[in-house]
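Colleagues,

For the teaching module next term, I've prepared a clean inverse folding example: a structure given as tokens, and then the sequence designed for it. I'd like students to try predicting residues themselves before seeing the answer, so please don't circulate the second half yet.
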């Protein structure tokens, strides 16, 4: 399922250009030294990936808690259904709930600090900009975090978000170098394709939770079950091999 995070990141990076592109366009890079410029871009992305990984770890812990309570398959199905429903619900209806409202104060501080850091030309500033950039509210990041819950594991949840972040790097780096490289019409067409892939990822999560016995896609019910009986654990391990 971690592979789905890469796909989501690659496709979602077109959305990122619209949301975080303005930050990428004005990064305080050393544009006279290519080597330093590459290093600074790396630090910026590394900061973002660290933030994504940290948040993924927290949401993975939530998923692990639900997993230990025996809800692992239900979580995967619920996550898949949630992804599909969010795509199908018109944006104007979804926006009425304004899920980011409780974070307004925190996001305000993040933006304020970003504004200060964007005026500083240093490696430390670029790394810090990446860290803060990762905390900015983004619907696509929320979607990835829902996926990290379904991993039911803190470390895999962190890895899921790390891989998601990796997927956003190519286009974001292109934006840093070339600015607004895609026309609005092209970006609009790509944006329309993103929901299709989100639905496909949602279906994968649903299949995973159904325990159909399909290797790598839908593990059997036994392989997803936790037992306190050592004999049963040995049997389950043999099924996974």
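(Answer key — instructors only)
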């Amino acid at each position: 399922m971690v592979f789905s995070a890469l796909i989501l990141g690659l496709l979602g990076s077109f959305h990122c250009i619209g949301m975080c592109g303005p930050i990428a366009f004005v990064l305080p890079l050393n544009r006279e030294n290519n080597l330093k410029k590459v290093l600074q871009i790396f630090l910026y992305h590394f900061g973002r990936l660290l933030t994504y990984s940290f948040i993924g770890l927290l949401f993975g812990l939530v998923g692990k808690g639900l997993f230990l309570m025996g809800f692992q398959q239900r979580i995967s199905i619920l996550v898949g259904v949630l992804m599909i429903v969010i795509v199908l619900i018109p944006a104007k209806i979804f926006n009425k709930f304004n899920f980011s409202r409780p974070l307004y104060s925190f996001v305000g501080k993040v933006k304020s600090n970003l504004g200060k850091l964007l005026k500083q030309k240093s490696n430390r500033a670029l790394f810090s900009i990446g860290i803060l950039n990762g905390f900015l509210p983004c619907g696509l990041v929320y979607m990835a975090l829902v996926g990290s819950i379904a991993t039911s594991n803190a470390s895999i949840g962190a890895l899921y978000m790390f891989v998601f972040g990796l997927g956003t790097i190519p286009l974001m780096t292109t934006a840093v170098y070339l600015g607004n490289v895609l026309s609005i019409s092209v970006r609009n067409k790509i944006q329309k394709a993103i929901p299709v892939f989100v639905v496909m990822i949602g279906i994968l999560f649903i299949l995973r939770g159904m325990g159909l016995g399909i290797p790598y896609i839908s593990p059997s019910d036994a392989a997803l079950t936790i037992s306190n009986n050592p004999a049963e654990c040995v049997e389950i391990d043999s099924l996974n091999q």
